Amino acid sequence: MEKSKGFPDEILKHLAACPACAREGDQLQLLLESLSAEAVPDPGEAYWQAFLPRLRYRLRVQQRALQGRPGWMWACSGAAASFLLAALVVGRWQVPPETGAQLRLEQVASGNNPESLQQALDTLLPDDPGISLREGSDPNALPNDLSQALEEAFPERETGLEGNSPEAQRLKEKGTSSSLDSGWV
Amino acid sequence: MWEPSKMNPSDPAQRDLDLVRQFQAGNEHAFDLLVEAHRRDVYRLAYRLLGNHADADDLSQEVFLRIYRSLVRFRGDASLRTWITRITLNLVTDRRRELAIRRQTSIEDLPVADHPSETGKESRVLEEEILRKAVRRLPRRQRETLILRVFQEMKFHEIAAVMGCTVGTAKANFFHALRGLRQRVGS
Q1: What is the rounded end-to-end Cα distance, in angstroms, of chain B?
Q2: Which of A26, A143, B105, B177 could make a disulfide contact with B142, Cβ separation 3.0–4.6 Å?
Q3: pTM for this predicted structure
Q4: Residue B100 has what pLDDT?
Q5: Are A43 and B53 an interchain contact pair (Cβ–Cβ within 8 Å)?
Q6: Count of CB contacts below 8 A, A vs B?
Q7: Contact, B116 vs B128, CB < 8 A?
Q8: CA dist., res. B111 & res. B51, Å (int)
Q9: What is the band of B135 on the pLDDT scale with cuts at 50, 70, 90?
Q10: Domains (ranges, CATH) in chain B?
């Protein structure tokens, strides 16, 4: 049996010494020859001449698809990305006051932090000055800035209750200024 | 830059490597020469595995598109022929899977060659048809090994490199394929 392209040397040596295997080898050889004889039909010279130009065309199309995005698309994408990023940052660091107060209330509920509770109440009820939870505070005491407000609303020049005016001097001499001062309350 | 006179046409592997280096250096024409050198082998292998001209043609183009994109990273660990064959086999496997899903048929039922044999003898046509079907019904790795060995005339160590297996496994696959084929077509 001739050395065929399908069999390595070791097999050929064995085939030379073993008739049974040699017979099977012949059948396999016929099979291989049948397979080898089956040629792939040639698509023709025109096909091969067009092969490279078609490939180059497809390469150009692919490269255009990758590079061909117009500038305005990149600009829009960048603007949208910047907007989303800014919204994310602002939304994270600027919590609305009401939301913050709610959060502080929740902290108080869990951690019993009166300072936080006071802040939360100040935020949620800004027009109610009567609520105070500060330790040691006197509920009957006037707010610190009340006297200053009264002074601004009723300056000395108009009331004439204090200062060096003749009326004031007269009242001082009578010793009634303190009662008058307290009478404003 | 590219100097064709320095290339050695008698050694295809060295010629391929030179062309690859030229392409990697920026010479686009080197890629054209690589395509011309390998397009027939790629087409024939694709045809053997897919069984018709349309799929073989489309897949051949796809192979070279893939090569173009990857060639800058080719280091030359294996020969270019081995590398191209491996790409072809991978794409063929993907394509057969797609076709089988699209046609809702098993891979073994894919259509056979659409180019009729030109022998003109009915018996010969029938024999070839039986052989083609028998080859297609072989397990995938046996079928690929058989085709690489018989039709692409690759050596076993090249087949092993393409298939990612040992030389012994490649030989075993080949002989299992022959045995299976003989059982299917009869003696």
Answers
A1: 58
A2: B177
A3: 0.57
A4: 73
A5: yes
A6: 67
A7: no
A8: 7
A9: confident
A10: 1-113 (1.10.1740.10), 116-187 (1.10.10.10)
The alpha helices in chain A, defined as continuous H runs, are 9-17, 19-37, 45-67, 71-93, 97-111, 114-124, 146-153, 156-159, 166-174, 177-183
pLDDT tens per residue across span B91-123? 998 888 887 776 655 445 555 555 544 445 566
Chain A residues with beta carbon closer than 8 angstroms to that of B35 = 51-52, 55
Distance from CA of A86 to the nearest CA of B (A): 38
Nearest Cβ partner for A59 among B65, B118, B151 = B65
Retrieve residue A59's tokens.
């390469």
Please name the member of A35, A55, A59 whose beta carbon is closest to the beta carbon of B131.
Answer: A35
Q: Could you give the ipTM of this predicted complex?
A: 0.75
Residue boundaries of the structural domains of chain A: 1-35, 97-134
Interface of B with A (CB under 8 A): 32, 35-36, 39-40, 43-44, 47-48, 53, 57, 60-61, 64-65, 68, 113, 115, 117-118, 127-128, 131-132, 135, 146, 149-151, 153, 156, 171, 174, 178, 181-182, 185, 187
